[in-house]
Amino acid sequence: xxxxxxxxxxxxxxxxxxxxxxxxxxxxxxxxxxxxxxxxxxxxxxxxxxxxxxxxxxxxxxxxxxxxxxxxxxxxxxxxxxxxxxxxxxxxxxxxxxxxxxxxxxxxxxxxxxxxxxxxxxxxxxxxxxxxxxxxxxxxxxxxxxxxxxxxxxxxxxxxxx
Length: 162
Hints:
By secondary structure, the chain is an alpha+beta fold. The chain is 28% helix and 27% strand.
């Protein structure tokens, strides 16, 4: 009888796979486990690309200088978004003083071409303060004119976030 049981176990077990399932029997948990496993495989692929430097641009092209030396940096579009409930006056800060550019109505966005390093300022009629901003030169740059929470709580008026 013991031999028959051992023979039956030896014939049945190899065909059923592992005794402990790798994935949960709950479909929701099983999907989460499969997603995590596929994400790990994707991370391994990205790590191998970084190791072999295949994610870097080729340096075998004839043009090796990225832009070269120029007199003036290229201007970028800066989107100035006024989310306050009042109109803002936009200025450029020059060595001689402020140069008026435009009025930015409440809730509107004003696109302004400016070279990197250009300093901008904005003023509001309701509060005697000025917010400054320096253009960084990145594509899709946005200056968001909005109040910060801590300044409104103290009653000091709106300030600008950068």
